[in-house]
Amino acid sequence: MIKRLFSFLIAINAFILLSQPMEACTGITLKSQDGAHILARTIEWAGDNLNSRYVIVPRGYKQTSILPDGTRSGMEFTARYGYVGLSVEQEEFIADGLNEAGLCAGLFYFPKYGQYEEYNPSEKASTISDFQLVSWILGNFKTVDEIKEALPKIHVVNIEPKASTVHWRMSDSSGHQLVLEIIEGIPHFYENKLGVLTNAPGFIWQLTNLNNYVNLYPGTTEAHPFGNIQLSSFGAGSGLLGIPGDVTPPSRFVRAAFYQTTAPQQATARETVLQSLQILNNFDIPPGIEFPQGEAPASLPSATQWTISTDLTNRMIYYRTMYNSTIRCIDLKRIDFKHIKYHSAPLDKVKEQPIELISIK
């Protein structure tokens, strides 16, 4: 297991050094008219299959962090709250999830801009790997303020020091949302009132960059004179002419911000979840655009390996995958986290998109 972990993280680092944009995550936030808070996001990796699973963790479940020396002898932590998460590569590496108290947390790749503190073996009892931080958060906290207070007491490190860093988005059932970035070993929390997150550069830079698109607006530009001729729109939506269309993190941040803020508010949580997934359709990334011509892996149908929409208010997780766009749901209210055993299963029972044949009589 540890050997596979190191291979995975070293592969990430190799892709970064080759300047191939392999990691991409896009997160948005919506609120329904009936007051439900919905967080949705994609997770991308075009190198190979992340072998993601859904994991159900009961109250009282104990974990120990993996350390940079390859041992599982770091910080021990026990879940006060049960939670459900979606993992990457190894089932203990929860990339995004929700706990029974309505707290949601997820990691987003943050290459070149984050920097954790150096691993100190004398502090291993309070040291946790970055890919296990989401598990610690979901298992131990009810509000983001609790996380903010507790985080300075622990040490977050890379398992593989040369691998990419990540940053985190977290929100509680009140809708209070924070972004955590660790820079030069110091954790920084930012209020995320917009509710959007992608990757690098940092979150504050991304917010500032939105000012470059102050001219954008929803709807269609009206015709107007231009010298001796008349200019008019070719079609609907010309108010967004100039919005960036590439898949770099800054461009995705801008698009996500405008798609989210211009989306009509839906009446119910269920309708809002479906709306969030429709919006995130715009951020599916074909593997072919992330590699030089002819080098993209033919085995992956999409670089966007899965998309998740989380209803914090009603404690429900919805997801779909690159293999199967059917929306599946896990209702945390139906799980007895006191008595259920730890459970892990693949996101897809069959890695093939079901196709319904319409019978014509």
Written description of the protein model:
The chain is of the alpha+beta class and 361 residues long. The chain has one domain (2-202, 267-346): Penicillin V Acylase, Chain A. The protein has 6 helices and 20 strands. It has helices at 2-17, 133-140, 144-150, 203-209, 249-261, 269-280; strands at residues 23-24, 27-31, 37-45, 53-57, 62-64, 76-78, 83-88, 90-99, 104-109, 127-129, 155-157, 166-171, 177-183, 186-191, 224-226, 229-231, 304-311, 316-321, 328-331, 343-346. The strands form 5 sheets. It has an 8-stranded antiparallel sheet, with helices on one face. It is globular and about 75 Å long. The N and C termini lie far apart (54 Å). 43% of the residues are buried.
Topology:
Blueprint (H helix, E strand, L loop, with lengths): L1 H16 L5 E2 L2 E5 L5 E9 L7 E5 L4 E3 L11 E3 L4 E6 L1 E10 L4 E6 L17 E3 L3 H8 L3 H7 L4 E3 L8 E6 L5 E7 L2 E6 L11 H7 L14 E3 L2 E3 L17 H13 L7 H12 L23 E8 L4 E6 L6 E4 L11 E4 L15
Amino-to-carboxy terminus distance: 54 Å
The dominant shape is globular
Helix-strand pattern, N to C? HEEEEEEEEEEHHEEEEHEEHHEEEE
- By DSSP (H or I, 4+ residues per run), the number of helices equals 6
Mean pLDDT: 92
Per DSSP E runs of 2 or more residues, the count of β-strands stands at 20
* Beta-strand residue fraction: 25-35%
How many structural domains can be distinguished in the coordinates? Answer: 1
Q: Strands of the largest sheet, in order across it?
A: 14-13-12-9-8-7-4-20
CATH architecture: 4-Layer Sandwich
